[in-house]
Amino acid sequence: MHNVVSTSASQTNLATESKLKLLSVKWVASKLNNTPQKLKFIQIIGVFIAFMMFVVIGLYAAHLKNIQQVISHDTVPSIIAAEKLRYQLANAHAELVNIFLLKQVDGKSDLQKKSWIAYKESIRKAQSSYLDAAQNITYGEAERKPIYDVMTGLNEYERLVGSANASGKFGVEIKEADKIMQEIILPAAIALDQANYNVLDLQYKHFVNTKFIYMSGFVLFFIFVSAYLYFSQKYLFTKTKRKFNLGMLCASGVTIFGFIAVLILTHNTNKALDVSKNDAFDSVHLMWKAKATGSEINFIESLYLLEYEDKNKQNFLLNEFTKKSQTEMKYLLDENNNITFKGEDLQAKNALKYFQSYMKIDQKIRLYESSNRHADAINLCLGTKEGESNYVFDQFDLALDNILNINNTEFSSNTKKALNNIYMIDFLGLLMAIVFSLSVFLGLKPRIEEYKY
To answer: What secondary structure letter does DSSP report for 452?
Structure first.
């Protein structure tokens, strides 16, 4: 009995739905049973399409703006801040090691004071970079943890440095400070870089992989609008015997030229974003890593001499020096294979040349050290005259700065260019929507009014 009632109720519902659909169709048909009503319907559809034009192009521009925002604001500043932080902290540590290394050579008190001033300045710059990174947290715990590790590690590091500076001796405090720097602070800066780079890499790959999908949607919408314009004008010709309707012709022109303009602006935007990410930023990122790794190599070289009484420690440091030197060489070779902008080639070659010279001097330093010429090894390591280690290292660092300046300029220029193109696409969507709706509305209005008389 229950099943019979349920079946009867279902049949009643289906019958009701069918009647409603039939009534809806009849109502629409009654509203479109003559030419002026059909023209009004075409007019309304045209205004609706204009609104959709504004929405579709706006969403397309928002898609482009999202990746531009990710590149220029959300990730790259944090990546650069992380590598700057690493570089400045490595510089500070190098100066700290040099202070105690200079104590092993007579008549170097003035250089010790200069190293202390340089240490304090590097710490100040590192604190500024730390604030930049902390103020641009976008991706939660992946950024918070390394930032927290840098903060707590640096506090303890500076406490130990203050204690060692008061005693004036190389001992437990400096060794512990070195351990904190190499095992906590610098790895945390690398983790901060990696957290942001992973997001950038993932989102840019997603953008590249979905470009065709977004463009296909835009093209399909253009085909839909073109179909509307074609059949509307065909109907107008059939009913009015006029070849052209000025308003509909204007709407067609706006659609065609607007579509072409959006395609051109999209191409230019994609090109600017590609240059920003794959040419300029990749080199900027690489060179900041090269600067940071170079400074780590530099302080390891000094630490090697400072630990002259502990041969096991020296062997460990030599191994670390070799590994980081190989990494540095890879960075420099990668940069020489990614030359894109004017002047970059010369600076990349200079950087490679000076690093090779630095490595040759390092071999000489180690030869002095193994020959019991400890003071000569220190003088060559910390010397700032042409042909001495610090002089060559400074030239190397300067060449990296020059590469950075070239690529930073291009990065800034191309991200701005991309943003300007996106704003133009957005504005074009609004302009097309206004002109299209007015053209359709005003173009059909006289034809509708003709049927009043």
So the answer is: G
